[in-house]
Amino acid sequence: MEEYKLSLYNPQLLDAVTDFWLRNDYFKGIDPIALRKHLLWKYDDSLTHLWIVQKQGHIIGSCGTIRTDLLSSGQLICKGPWGMDSLVEKSLSNEERRCVFLKVFRGALLEGVRRKQPEIVLCFPNEVVRGTYLRTGWRDIPIFFKFTKSIISEEYKVRDHRTGDLEFLLIKEFESGWDALWSKFSELFSLVVSREHSYLNWRYFKNLEKRYFVFLVRDYKGIKGYVVLREEGSDDKKIGHIVDFLLEDQSNEAAFINKVIMFLALRGCKFVDVHVSHKRFQEAFLSLGFKKEKVDLFIFTRFSGLLKLHIENTKDWFITSGDGDVEMES
Fold first, then answer.
1. Is residue 310 a contact partner of residue 191, using CB atoms and an 8 Å limit?
2. Three-state secondary structure string covering the chain
3. CA neighbor of 236 nearest in space, from 157, 159, 156, 150
4. What is the pLDDT of residue 214?
């Protein structure tokens, strides 16, 4: 392995990484300018790392992480990095591809292990690397699902869908005061990724490639949570994505979902979808006629006691497509 060089990405490697991803069709149909913008946004050193492998000065592998925290019942339990952008040069032999992947994998995803920091690493694996992840000790946690529903805008214009007293307040950023509310909301979940204001602003307001509708959700008592929406396509194929959300009130899921559907329907969306792990919300989407489809969620840790402590209550894990790279790459 002496011929391989493992290092962290820096902005001087922007053109080389762009060429590597384009050469290997990582984002199909994307042009170089758009891909450069994507990399400039995604790899912010304070929040993300990208490890790369070079051979004779050419990049032949990459693997990144979102560097975030995991909380349980409001308490920080460990680092919770998300693996993403796992890619190996397609022209290599299968044996060499495995070697390169493992080298990048160890560099990127075991960063905390080397520092002896307790951590649980999570990812949404693509089909190319799915088998390799399983062979290297990852565990498939079958709790993450995509829910889809066909909606008719005229129906939602005239029908009386109960939304209670909920209001949606469109915002341009999360202010620092959000963090106190987040601290309270995080107590509801047995496992959840940190959603502090700086992280949410990076995900949804600094990403110039996509337009998001970000709303605070409130009633007469105050802020109850937030929701992030995105539209895709046009005409009869227009889809409304519920990218991320958080809701405090445990009795108001149906009203919240109906309010979201009404907004998307009035904007001409014909379908709505959402990814979520939490059992209570899964049941709410199913009760409103959404169809359910499993999506891979893998975890990895060298701290077996840490995992055992939290694996027994997966029904209260809260994960959406706004975590990890499902939304980043769609």
1. yes
2. CCCEEEEECCHHHHHHHHHHHHHCCCCCCCCHHHHHHHHHHHCCCCCEEEEEEEECCEEEEEEEEECCEEEECCEEEEECCEEEEEEECCCCCHHHHHHHHHHHHHHHHCHHHHCCCCECEEECCCHHHHHHHHHCCCEECCCCEEEEEECCHHHHHHCCCCCCCCEEEECCCCCCCHHHHHHHHHHHCCEEECCCHHHHHHHHCCCCCCCCEEEEEEECCEEEEEEEEEEECCHHHCEEEEEEEEECCCCCHHHHHHHHHHHHHHCCCCEEEEEECCHHHHHHHHHCCCEEEECCCEEECCCHHHHHHHHCCHHHEECECCCCCCCCCC
3. 150
4. 98
Q: How far is 239 from 150, CA to CA, in rounded Å?
A: 9
Instruction: Report pLDDT for 1.
Output: 45
Contact criterion met (CB below 8 Å) for 215 and 226: yes
Mean confidence (pLDDT) of the chain: 89
Please state the rounded mean pLDDT for residues 83-95. 90
Q: Which tokens go with 311?
A: 């694996």
